[in-house]
Amino acid sequence: PTALMAGKKGLIMGLANERSLAWGIAKLAARHGAELAFTYQGEALGKRVQPLAESLGSSIVLPCDVTDDASMDGVFEKLEAEWGQLDFLVHAIGFSDKNELRGRYVDTSAENFRMTMDISCYSFTALSRRAAPLMKDGGSLVTLTYYGAERVMPHYNVMGVAKAALEASVRYLAADLGKDGIRVNAISAGPIKTLAASGIGDFRYILKWNEYNSPLRRNSTIEDVGGAALYLMSELGAGVTGEVLHVDCGYHVVGMKAVDAPDI
Ligand code: NAD
To answer: Which pathway is recorded for this entry (predicted)?
Structure first.
């Protein structure tokens, strides 16, 4: 352990299980001395999140559904009462109807468009507004995005549009909150097999494609994501805000299939 995150208190939102990107971040933050609180969505996930949180020494584990304003208010009231301040927040939340994470983007329904935008994009703004007053010594807000925001990826569809809006909101939030010493950044993670990713059509093909064509010739891991988050949440990232940091084994710099890539 190092003192990198010693004395820092952070809220981790979006942990579902030990495959979650949020888990990679939580493990590293705890290992480097941070004190953590967690939220979970729904009782079924609560049963999984509780023991994971306890294994990192966390005693604050709260329900939160980002489609419910009162539930978000409740989380920050509780943190104000328990901690009185907050140093970082991790937003690792996204959702879309899996029937629309295949086929054509043009067929996206209005209802799922609104829900995807609300849960996957607006919730970061709604949570940032609630977290900022608790970040009395400044702070760091981190969200998770994907390259499908920048380029068309098969099946990513409405989620790509929501991630593009999320990345734009990172820049606007950074501009709004910078004068309070609050930094706002996104990590653009490469594809990783998680519960959320299993809803995306042909995900195994996408994983193989990235493994064969990324400069590092492997897929990124939740530990890679944790390392980047640690940089953004600690003093190491003190001068960094409004940034979208790619943690994708370099995939975003590639323009074509690698000459040595095997057929999939
Ligand atoms: P995951 O399934 O482990 O986590 C997704 C989380 O979102 C779950 O904990 C779920 O409970 C939560 N969530 C969904 N709807 C919610 C709501 N209404 N209220 C509160 N929480 C809600 O999957 P993950 O892949 O770790 O996803 C975390 C983030 O990382 C997402 O934003 C995802 O888009 C992003 N991301 C994932 C990948 C990947 O390949 N897995 C790549 C880049 C970015």
So the answer is: Lipid metabolism; fatty acid biosynthesis
